Amino acid sequence: MFVSKAEVRNYPVIGQIAWLMGVIFLKRDSSSERLRVLNTIAESCSNQILAVFPQGTTGGTNERLPFNRGIFKVAELNPGVSLLPVTIHYKDDAEIAWNKPQSLMANAKKVCAKKRIDVRVIIHEPFTADDFREKTAAQICQKVQDMVLDPLNEKFR
User: Fold this and answer.
1) d(CA 57, CA 86)
2) Percent helix / strand / coil, the chain, rounded to 5
3) C or N terminus of the chain, fewer CB within 10 Å?
4) What is the residue-level pLDDT of the chain in tens, covering all 157 positions?
5) What is the DSSP string of 91-141?
């Protein structure tokens, strides 16, 4: 199960694929919409993998964009949820990352033109209910953020 910002639904090709995959689209500027999505996820994501990008956007390694803690509220709403933090580290992330004001199409062309993309994927230890019992969404968010971002300090080999 993936969660994505609502704008992705309107992206050519990607939006249609996301919709067909059952992506949950979120209007980030609506607090009632955020709560609706969190409740939907909490009710339906037991025994499923939930993929989220808690920074809410893409950026280069040097930017260290903070995680948005809202999605971590799911762990408070459903103690059966497990979290599996993953770090994705591109060697040439300045060439891969989609940075505003660059358009999606411009970024896609740049990425597709590359002959090779070196990426390191680190799958961290999962978090279970026991790991976040009596912790707030903000505390869970901070722990996951540190876990995911710390490997980006290392030189890409």
Assistant:
1) 16
2) 45, 15, 40
3) C
4) 778 888 889 988 889 999 998 888 888 787 788 788 888 777 776 666 667 778 877 777 777 788 888 878 877 777 777 788 888 888 888 788 877 788 878 888 988 999 999 999 999 988 776 777 788 888 888 988 999 999 888 877 7
5) TTHHHHS--TTS-HHHHHHHHHH-S---EEEEEPPPB-HHHHTT--HHHHH
If one counts every other C-beta atom within 10 angstroms of the C-beta of residue 38, the result is: 21
Q: Are 109 and 151 in contact (CB under 8 A)?
A: no
| Residue carrying the six token digits 């707030």 | 136
Q: Return d(Cα 31, Cα 29) in angstroms, integer.
A: 7
Q: Considering all CA atoms of the chain, what is the largest pairwise distance in Å, rounded to the nearest integer?
A: 48
Tokens standing for residue 69? 């803690």
